[in-house]
Description:
11% strand, alpha+beta, 3 strands, globular
Amino acid sequence: MIETCRYCGYKVVINGPNYECVNCKASVGVRIKNGLLADKELRLLRVKCHQLFDAQWVFGKVTRSQAYINNGNKHFGQMDKEECLSWLNENGHAVN
Ligand SMILES: [Zn+2]
């Protein structure tokens, strides 16, 4: 349960499928266990991670859940900006 925004400290409410900050609109899916609120920049980074992740694993030989285990058992929704950037680097994806 997320109650306050990690960016601005304002109240976080449930809006549809997401937790959302009433002030800056940072959000994360309610269903993600230990999800970390994301601002626009982090959400875009997570999309990039997901695209690369899917290209590597979902269309490959392992299942999605196996891929998460290979990914340190961490969901992108739990990763902050630095973690997303280093994941992209480690996976050979230049970030600009
Ligand atoms: Zn906020």
